[in-house]
Design a protein that fits this description.
Number of domains: 2
Radius of gyration: 24 Å
Structural class: alpha/beta
Number of helices: 4
Shape: elongated
Helix content: 25-40%
Mean pLDDT: 89
Number of strands: 8
Distance between the termini: 13 Å
Strand content: 25-35%
Order of helices and strands: HHEEEEEEEHEH
Low-confidence stretches: none
Length: 229
């Protein structure tokens, strides 16, 4: 039997594919690490900052106030979210402004609650809301596809959510409400920022890279043993 015929081609291909997947996951976690470190820096600077009137030029991670006509009964979409270990949905509505519209994340509702806020598009009762401006979250390869027809979303993206709500000229950031649009409904929890944000992306990245290194060592040891035999 020739040396070429003894070379484990199938195993080599499988190993190469596995290494590529593991390294890709490790690189993705490093990207998430940089994003999380920047997020934590911005949150630290935000603590204790007063709310200022919203303007189209307001920057991300600025605490602002805004009056929204009919926000308590406005149409909404649901954004899948996990908060403090509980799965649920964030209720997002559009707030009309003289310059266009702002998407307002009104708060979190856990999956254990089936009820939802009332909807009456004709209601124009003004609701004062204060909160933190935040940009959208990048969609990753593990993000499920949105279901606009069912008003269910899995990625925090201004364009698709604004389109589903019919919001014209939306601002590029979400207003994460710190005050409730429906104080009479306790199930809606204004949740602009989690109380504690973990940052274990470096640990995850090292795990994926470690698995890749282990796989490479096992494969090299197997080739060495076959060559010796």
């Amino acid at each position: 039997m020739t040396q070429t015929s003894r070379f484990p081609i199938g195993l080599t291909i499988a190993t190469a594919i596995s290494l590529a997947i593991l390294c890709t996951l490790g690189g993705w976690q490093m990207q998430r690490l940089a994003w999380k470190q920047d997020l934590l820096t911005r949150i630290a600077a935000l603590q204790g900052a007063p709310a200022t009137p919203w303007m189209p030029s307001s920057a991300e991670f600025t605490r602002v106030s805004l009056t929204c006509p009919g926000l308590a009964k406005a149409p909404f979409v649901e954004l899948y979210a996990i908060r403090e270990g509980k799965a649920g949905s964030r209720i997002i509505s559009a707030c009309k402004t003289p310059q266009g519209s702002v998407l307002v994340d009104r708060g979190f509702v856990p999956d254990t609650i089936s009820a939802r806020p009332p909807v009456d598009a004709a209601d124009r009762t003004p609701v004062a809301v204060a909160g933190v401006l935040r940009g959208g979250d990048p969609r990753s390869f593990i993000t499920p596809p949105d279901r606009p027809a069912e008003r269910q979303f899995f990625a925090r993206e201004v364009g698709p959510i604004a389109a589903a709500l019919g919001a014209a000229n939306p601002a590029p950031m979400f207003l994460m409400a710190e005050t409730s649009s429906n104080p009479e409904w306790a199930a809606l929890e204004p949740a602009p920022l989690p109380a504690e944000i973990t940052n274990r992306h470096l640990e995850y990245a090292l795990t994926w890279f470690g698995l890749a290194a282990t796989l490479a060592c096992v494969y090299a040891a197997m080739l060495w043993r076959r060559r010796r035999d």
